[in-house]
Structures are given as structure tokens and as C-alpha cells.
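Input C-alpha cells:
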């Protein structure tokens, strides 16, 4: 039987190694490309099944070019697929699926960010980097006994909840599916010392946390986001921080991050509507969408991508 060929776009060096290592087990031949799936650089003909990363957007023009090249299936190597114009894909007859990788890496990272924010780690590390070893002017807070609001109870949200219980926290959960034990968002915001976001980004959750929600939160509350940047109305968020309406924040994602994250700006101007302002705020930690970035997640994501493509091909043959 002829091996299945799939084209891998946005493929980084370690991803390429994983695809080459795992593909033979599934009878798959990967075509490795470092370039994103752009309309002006798509090989024609192309594999029917392709895989893309989350680091670049795939607009309708790109999808149209993919369809013309013979693509009928896209598997994104991420849980979120808001970087793909899903409506355009559906209109063009292209199936889009995601990969639900293990939640532990993101859950661990979320707890790390919470602890860093509570212990003012940003200012401490900055002082030490400049050989200033004095104690911080403000004492840190302990997570044990705090009320932590978890917005979203999917795989990652549940993994975070498990860790918070181990720390002795009182946990409030607002689940978008209104599962048992879920509380309304306004109640969670009013009562929580820490709020952490774990919902997908879509039309319903865009700017889920905005001006009115910041008014509901405790004045010293910490906001953590390891999900998607546009869950937060960043302009309203910065206003709340600058007016001392929040105790601090830790963000691994940011609105407009696609123009900045994963690039080296150490020797060139940083042009972004929010990031330079956030960097100046002492009680805000920003990291470049790296919570998912573990070796275990890499191999799990590659394996599930291969399985998704194989399952799709088998369904097509049986129809």
C-alpha cells in the first residue's frame, strides 16, 4: 500500500525531527516545510492532508490557495484554532481539526506564573540581575488559603484546579458549559484573589474580561492568562493596572502577539500597541506564549497530528 503523504507547514527543527522519527510507524511520509501556509508559497499540487502551527494566521486567501492545490484537511498542532479562518474553510470544503495535547505543561506553567506574581518575582529577578540583593520593599503573599477563580473547566482548567487544591486554595469555577458546581462569572470575579483564564477564543469569549469585569474584581486581585490574548480587553486592562484597580498580572499570551512573539527584537524597535506599556508596569509579568513548550507536548502533538491525518484518510476511503 502506498504510504500517506502529508505536508507539514511552519515546521521547526525539533518538530521536524519528531515527525521524521514517528511518521514511519504510521506509514506516513512527511513533507517538511519551514514556511507557513501562505497563498503565494503553497506547493501545487499539495498533499490532501496538511499540518500547520499556531504561530501564523491562515486567512481565506491562503485557504483558497490550499483548496486549489488539493488540500481537503488541515490539522493544527495546537488546541486553539482561532488562527484559522474556520468559516472560510467550511465554505471551501476543508475540514479543520485541532490537537488536544496533555494539559500538565500549561497547568504547571500557570501555577508558576501565579506564584511569581504573588511573590513579586519580576522585581526581585530584575534587582538580582543588577547585583542588588536587598529584600523587596513589599512582602509577598502565600497561595495557600486564597480564593482562586478558574474560568474554563476543560482539560487544562481541570489540571489547574487539581494543582490549586494541592496548594490548599479555595477554588471557584466558571465553566462556559455551565457544568455542575459552576458559578456565574461576576460572582467568581467578585470573590477571587487570583483569576486564571482557560477558555477558547471565539466570538462569545472575545474580550470576556473587559472594563465592567475589572470593576467587579478585588482591587489587589491577580489576573493570569495562559489561554488566548484577546480574552482580555487589553486597553481596559492597562487602564485598570495604571489606576491601581488590580494587584498585578501574569500573561503568557497577548492581543496582537503574532507580530512580536517568537521574534528577536533585542536589536530593533518594538512596535506594539500594548507590550511596551505593560513592560513598564512593575507588577506585570509577560512571557512569549511558551506555557505549552515542553518536549512531552511536542511528541504527543506530533503523534496525534499523524493519527488525525490517518483517521481522516481512512474515513475518506470508506465513504
Amino acid at each position: 500500500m502506498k504510504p500517506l503523504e502529508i505536508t507539514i507547514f511552519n515546521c521547526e527543527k525539533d518538530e521536524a525531527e519528531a515527525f521524521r522519527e514517528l511518521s514511519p510507524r504510521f506509514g506516513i511520509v512527511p513533507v517538511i516545510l519551514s514556511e507557513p501556509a501562505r497563498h503565494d508559497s503553497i506547493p501545487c499540487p499539495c498533499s490532501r492532508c496538511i499540518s500547520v502551527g499556531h504561530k501564523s494566521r491562515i486567512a481565506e486567501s491562503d485557504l483558497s490557495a490550499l483548496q486549489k492545490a488539493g488540500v481537503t484537511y488541515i490539522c493544527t498542532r495546537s488546541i486553539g484554532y482561532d488562527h484559522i479562518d474556520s468559516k472560510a474553510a467550511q465554505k471551501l470544503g476543508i475540514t479543520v481539526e485541532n490537537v488536544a495535547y496533555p494539559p500538565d505543561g500549561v497547568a504547571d506553567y500557570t501555577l508558576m506564573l501565579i506564584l511569581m506574581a504573588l511573590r513579586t518575582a519580576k522585581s526581585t529577578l530584575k534587582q538580582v540581575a543588577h547585583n542588588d540583593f536587598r529584600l523587596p520593599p513589599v512582602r509577598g503573599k502565600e497561595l495557600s488559603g486564597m480564593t482562586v477563580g478558574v474560568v474554563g473547566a476543560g482539560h487544562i482548567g481541570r489540571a489547574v484546579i487539581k494543582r490549586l487544591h494541592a496548594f490548599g486554595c479555595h477554588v471557584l469555577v466558571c465553566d462556559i458549559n455551565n457544568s455542575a458546581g459552576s458559578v456565574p462569572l461576576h460572582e467568581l470575579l467578585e470573590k477571587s484573589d487570583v483569576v486564571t483564564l482557560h477558555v477558547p477564543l471565539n466570538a462569545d469569549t472575545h474580550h470576556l474580561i473587559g472594563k465592567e469585569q475589572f470593576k467587579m474584581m478585588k482591587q489587589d486581585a491577580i489576573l493570569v492568562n495562559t489561554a488566548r490574548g484577546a480574552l482580555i480587553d487589553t486597553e481596559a486592562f492597562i487602564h485598570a493596572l495604571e489606576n491601581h484597580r488590580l494587584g498585578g498580572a501574569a500573561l503568557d499570551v497577548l492581543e496582537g502577539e503574532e507580530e512580536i512573539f517568537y521574534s528577536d527584537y533585542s536589536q530593533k524597535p518594538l512596535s506594539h500597541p500594548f507590550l511596551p506599556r505593560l513592560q513598564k508596569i512593575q507588577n506585570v509579568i509577560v512571557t512569549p506564549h511558551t506555557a505549552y513548550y515542553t518536549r512531552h507536548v511536542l511528541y504527543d502533538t506530533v503523534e496525534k497530528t499523524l493519527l488525525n491525518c490517518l483517521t481522516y484518510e481512512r474515513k475518506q476511503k470508506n465513504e
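The first strand starts at residue 4 and ends at 8. The chain has a mean pLDDT of 94.
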